[in-house]
Amino acid sequence: xxxxxxxxxxxxxxxxxxxxxxxxxxxxxxxxxxxxxxxxxxxxxxxxxxxxxxxxxxxxxxxxxxxxxxxxxxxxxxxxxxxxxxxxxxxxxxxxxxxxxxxxxxxxx
Length: 109
Hints:
Layout: H1 3-32, H2 36-108
């Protein structure tokens, strides 16, 4: 095999490798290409996902506001309960003082 035959054989081998590579590229892109209907479906799914995220964010905001309202209401109720318990304690103490006064007054007669 002389130099010219070697160059021609190498050129043919490189050309065949190029053709095989181009065919593999075409074949891969043929199977992985996204059709317009698939793109439309992907756009629809993206829009629905965006709407779902907005709804979730609104629900989270509502729940946070409701939790703050309920926490505030609970603290107010606890303050009222504490005040009522203090008042009841004072009333019991006063009633006990009145009972002891009445008992002393009746015992003295």
